[in-house]
Specification:
By secondary structure, this protein is of the alpha/beta class. About 45% of the residues lie in helices and about 20% in strands. Strands 4-3-5-6-7-13 form a 6-stranded parallel beta sheet, sandwiched between helices. A 4-stranded parallel beta sheet has the order 9-8-10-11, with helices on both faces. Strands 12-14-15 form a 3-stranded mixed beta sheet.
Length: about 350
Amino acid sequence: MKNRVLAGLLTVAAAAVLTAGCGGSTSGESGGGKEKESYTIGISQFAEHGSLDNCREGFLMGLEEEGIKEGENLTVDYKNAAADMGTAGQISDSFVSDKVDMICAIATPTAQSAYNAAMDADIPVIYTAVTDPVAAELATEDGKAVGEVTGTSDKLPVEVQLQMIRKMLPDAKKIGIMYTTSEANSLSAIEEYKDLAGTYDFEIIEKGISTTADVPLAAEDLLNKADCLTNLTDNTVVASLPTILEKADDKKIPIFGSEIEQVKIGCLAAEGLDYIALGKQTGKMAAKVLKGEEKASEMSYEIITEPGFYVNTKVAENLGITVPTDLSDSAAESFSEITE
């Protein structure tokens, strides 16, 4: 009888060991971790506007191309901070409390918030639409991660944008730029604009804001001083772009964008990024981390190196501006209407 009981216990113990060895994994060990059967990602987006929405869409597409699909082996918890830093912090803390497998942070403020919250919780943070990861203290000068955090940069092609504006507006002298004083990405971009503007015979007129409530007066001030305005990837400003465009339209002053969605809604043109492509690139990086192929701390941040030229011919017509042939012929996309 004792032998039968002992044999039974050994059988149960062996089964338990086998179960423990197989539970929650599928394809074995890679890069120091094991690929799980399913994942939960918390997506923290700083504000709701076209470029960041496209990043999120592209991120999920990139994951799906690597076999991680929402509704099958991926659960997504999406939260939007509505351009509020306090809310962004609460979102990051909630994701850490929920012990998600990864946080995807869209835009610089949420990336900083997510990393600060997750750095001691062993939760990797993958960011996108962070203009200057070094200035945001998410990467070192040589591009390496400062911890379990990496992703993609939407660094603006500033010099190419200035070249394009000079071609479009040969007589313009002053470019106005509105930016949020608390956004590290905007501060970095402003400095690059100021460094390069003189090369193309431009003067930069800058106006800092703190909240969306500051936008109308700041726009009026810039439009009274500048020959045109150009947008950064500043989240607060981009979220208020319809207000700026309305005021600029009244004064017949062109606004240049930083990406495709801004051109669709009324900016004249942009040498900008494809944010869906940027998001896809981020999703593929995230898949490597989730599958255990690489750790986030082992991956330098990545950028898209080739901007595309986008133009709205309806806006050009309304402003009486002729788009140079070499630009129109090279356009990645051209729009003949203004979308609301």
